[in-house]
Amino acid sequence: MLNLIRFNPQAVTEAVQLAEQFLLLQQDVDGCWRDYQLEPGSSEAWTTATVLYSLTGSQPSSIPVPMVNAAIQALLDLQRPTGWGYNRHTATDGDSTAWACRALASLQALPGAFLAAILQNYIHENGSTRTFILQDRFGSWADHHADVQPMIGMALLKCYASAASKQTSTLTSLIFRMRNHCILSAGNELWTAFWWNSDAYAIAINLEFLQTSGGIPEAIRQNATLWLMQTNSPQSAFEAAQLLKIALLCGVDPDTTGNLAQYLLNTQLTDGSWASAEVLLVPVQFEQNQHSNEITNTYADTKRLMSTAMAITSLKTILAATKQLMN
Question: Which CATH number does 9-326 carry?
Fold first, then answer.
């Protein structure tokens, strides 16, 4: 429960609005938000969907309708039969596809049943997932990853909310299997991130998926709370945003939650953004290369889009919690 005496919802609201204005100014003329500089170039669908969801997925939101429509059209233009990829030059992947489906389902831009069918390209019968479809081509990138499965699950839940009634039984069974796999894969050490150099992202999104799909089991909540209490101070706004979500989902003491929120308020830059963070990983794909010159590289969101979008999403979560507490 939040400490409303020392917590200032108005300051958070102002920070969110300033951050939204920053992101709006970063939108390209074709509707995309582009960031990162990997070997295939800048990201397109992935960051566009993530930023769009941070702006429109919950209130408050000040994004003008024409800019929403431009982002939707950009995602539709980038869509392929198996979903969306990092950009138009790369293969489709489960994470980019999940973010796109989550944003489009939230805005009811495409039918939920249609989007759910696309997501099923990345889900195995037992409820585990794969980030890329072709194992021979992508090696470890096509494995099950704890920082991707819950994102696919969250997208499916959005599809479930907007799907026709005849589709709901299928989706319910699928989400049930994904939820069970998520719980089993937590073990005693929770979840390990594959694509990020902080496990906080994987833990936060798994907890969010569990909470939204039926509730967080008490044993997992206790383990996550203990993990959070033993974690050092955040190394970036990106990580602080994940830690804040964990604190809110676990219902930890007000001081911890308030301190993490204040960290984000204190580190927001004057233009409304948060500093870029070198936290995105591009791991080695094939085991035989793990001892060669091919190493795992880390990348920063040079335009500060991902760090800002994550901070906005977490601060909106704390605003929603405050509003619920005051009602």
Answer: 1.50.10.20
